[in-house]
Amino acid sequence: MAIDNLARPVRLRPLAAEGSVAEPHLQQQLRTAMRPVAQPAEATVDPNNAAKNGKPAYPCIEITPRSVWIGSRRTSIRLEPEFWTALGEIAREQRSTISGVLLDIERIHGRSRFASKVRVAILAYYRR
């Protein structure tokens, strides 16, 4: 459904003659309701301009880095809090640790782009 269809102006019948003293607050509400609705500007994203006006170009997504042991090496992984929560739930269900789950994911999928592979593995786990 197009946005234009949702923003159609609504025509209201006047409650009393214009200038009538009967129920003036209703007349004001009527005038307010009859004002044209401003159409939202086209949403354009300019990452270069975002820094200038102090607003982020994209919605803020909090990514939390954590240091974990994967096998015998310590590494840092940056994931959204929801994925850390899901990793904890998976570890509990498998009676393992987050490090153990990450080690299994690394054995199956490899090391390159590991955070993305962790996200995909979590999605696949919950889809089964």
Q: Your description of this structure?
A:
The chain is mostly helical. 48% of the residues lie in helices and 11% in strands. It is built from six helices and two strands, in the order αααββααα. It has a two-stranded antiparallel sheet with strand order 1-2. β1 and β2 form a beta hairpin. It is elongated, with a radius of gyration of 28 Å. The N terminus is likely disordered.
Question: TL;DR?
Answer:
The protein has helices at residues 3-6, 24-34, 47-53, 81-93, 98-109, 114-127, and strands spanning 64-70, 73-79. The chain is built from six helices and two strands, in the order H-H-H-E-E-H-H-H.
Q: How many DSSP-defined strands?
A: 2
Could you estimate the helical fraction of the residues in percent? 40-55%
What are the low-pLDDT stretches, counting only 5+ consecutive residues below 50? 1-8
Instruction: Estimate the global geometry from the Cα principal axes.
Output: elongated
Radius of gyration: 28 Å
Residue fraction in strands: 5-15%
Largest beta sheet: what is the strand line-up?
1-2
Distinct helical segment count: 6
Kindly name the structural category. mainly alpha
N- to C-terminal distance:
33 Å
One letter per element, helices H and strands E, the order comes to HHHEEHHH
Properties at a glance:
mainly alpha, 6 helices, two-stranded antiparallel sheet, 128 residues, elongated
Secondary structure elements and their pairing?
Blueprint: H1 3-6, H2 24-34, H3 47-53, E1 64-70, E2 73-79, H4 81-93, H5 98-109, H6 114-127
Antiparallel strand pairs: 1-2
